[in-house]
Amino acid sequence: MELQPIRAEVLAVRMIPNVDEALAEQFKLKPGQRSLGMITTTIDDVGYTALDEATKRAEVEVVYARSFYAGAAHASGPLSGEFIGIIAGPNPDEVASGIEAIENTIRYDAYFEALNDEGTHTLYAHVVARTGSYLSKVAGINEGEPLAYLIAPPLEAMYGLDAALKAADVKLAAFYGPPSETNFGGGLLTGTQSACQAAAAAFRDSIIQIARQPLVW
Hints:
Elements: E1 4-6, E2 10-16, H1 21-26, E3 35-41, H2 44-57, E4 61-67, E5 83-89, H3 92-109, E6 112-114, E7 122-128, H4 133-139, E8 147-152, H5 154-167, E9 171-176, E10 185-190, H6 193-212
Antiparallel strand pairs: 1-6, 2-3, 3-5, 4-5, 6-7, 7-8, 8-10, 9-10
Helix pairs in contact: 2-3, 5-6
């Protein structure tokens, strides 16, 4: 079964070249972090992945990243989507480089996959070959280690995680029990890059089986 990619859409982007001290305090910015970059997008997990990429491409740090409840279909406004991410850097140039990395990852690299023609049944089985500072902190691993980022609807995610953990020499570094803010579930798995790829493939294959025969157990 060939799955079709579902790509996120960047909805809004803004930079604050010199952030106000009161706002800097709220985001707990470090000394020297004076510029902020903000972005919203239609798919949260793609957004988290893209933020991590920014930390590898520029001198920036993720200072805020949240999913919105119930997902993009119930967003608070036309530019809200499903996710907001904020990065901080020492100057506008570094933040601009980070924003560019975020946009490129969202548009060309990280994506969900559709299990049906309508695109209403989806999964995310993305392998990060080398983590940046953000996802490595979330997963509790060293920067530069590989990661399998696995997300799906609730039952599919739990079944798929079990298959992924049994398919390769990987460890569950972060568990997202359903329902998440967007009513999905999943986890982050660590191991070698080849092990993460094998785990992601097992996750995907097991969920394809559920999509084909949801009531056969």
